[in-house]
Design brief:
Number of helices: 8
Radius of gyration: 19 Å
Largest sheet: 7 strands, mixed
Distance between the termini: 53 Å
Number of strands: 14
Shape: globular
Structural class: alpha/beta
Strand content: 15-25%
Order of helices and strands: HHEEEEHEHEEEEEHEHHEHEE
Length: 354
Amino acid sequence: MNITRRKVLGWLAGTAAALGLPSLWISQMKTYAGPASDHFDGMRFFDPDGAPPKSLRNVLRWQFGRDRERAVWPERTPSPYADTPPARVDGAKVRLSFVGHASWLIQTAGLNILVDPVWSERASPFSFAGPKRHNDPGIAFEALPKVDIVLVSHGHYDHLDVATLSRLAAKFSPRVITPLGNDVTMRSSDDAIKAEAFDWQQRVDLGNGVAVTLVPTRHWSARGLFDRNKALWASFVLETPVGKLYIVCDSGYSEGRHFRRVAEDHGPLRLAILPIGAYEPRWFMKDQHMNPSDAVKALADCGAAQALAHHHGTFQLTDEAIDAPVIALAEALDEAKIPRERFVALKPGQVVEI
C-alpha cells in the first residue's frame, strides 16, 4: 500500500468532511455535558435504532484499498441558475431556493430560514485541502436577504461551517437552532454565533406561526479527535403556513424506521427534502448515507406529497460520479412507479414555490 504524505493529508481533509474525522488542532475541543437519556449515556449520544460509525480500520480499507474505484469529477460544473431572493415572502406560501449540497434558503411567513449554510470554498477543517466546491452557491452571499433563523443539523464539516456561521452572525445575528452539543462547537469558535441547542423531539417556536421540531435521524457526528458522538445530530420538521416540511440533511436508511415514525408523529407532510448523494462504496456508506433507491423508499415511508433532492453534486465526499445520484434517482423512481415530478433534483440557484 503506497501511502504518500500528500495522500494522507487529502484523506484527512476529505474524510473529516464526509465522516467527521479530526483536525488535530481541535482534538481537545469542549463538548456537551448533560444528563443521561435513552440516546445519551452521559458521555456520548447514540441512536437506539442506528448503527455505530465505521472503525478506523474500515476507513483505511476504503481510502487506501487496492480495489477502490473513485470517479473523477470535473474541476467545475457551474449551474446555469443564480437566485436573487426577495426580501421577504409573506402569506400562505413557501419559497425554497437551493444553495447547493445541503444548503437551502426557505422563505415563509415573513421569515428567512437557512438550512446547513456552507458558503466556504472547502468543506474541510483545512483551508488548503479537502473537498472543494465544484459549483458556486446558488445565491451569492451578498444577495442574501436578512436571515432570521439558521438550522444546523449536525457537526460534520459539510453541514456545520463555522466560517459561514460567523459571517452570518456578523451581518444578520440570526438565531441558530441546532442539536445538543453543536452550540459548544459554534461558540467555542465565535461567541457572536447565537446558538441554541435542543434535544430530539423538542419543538422550537420561530415566530409568525412557524415552528421546528428536531427529530431522530440515522447518522452520527464528530469534529475532533476525541469527540465522536459527543454532539447530537437531527433532522427537522418545519411547520409553515402551507404545511409541514421534513428536512433530512444526512441519514442512512436501514429499514426506514425513522421515516415512518415521522409520518406517524408529524404527518401529513407537504414536502420532504431528502439526501441522494455521497453513498459509494455501499459497504461503507449505507449506515450513514442513503443512495437514491433508499431515498425513494424514504419518500414512500414518510408519505410526503412532494420531495426535493439534495446532498449531491457540489462536494465530492465519496466515490460515485458527479451525475450518478441524479441518474439513479430517475431510475429508482421509474422502478417504484413514482412520477419523476414528485421527487425532483434541483441545480444550485433553482427555486421551488409552494
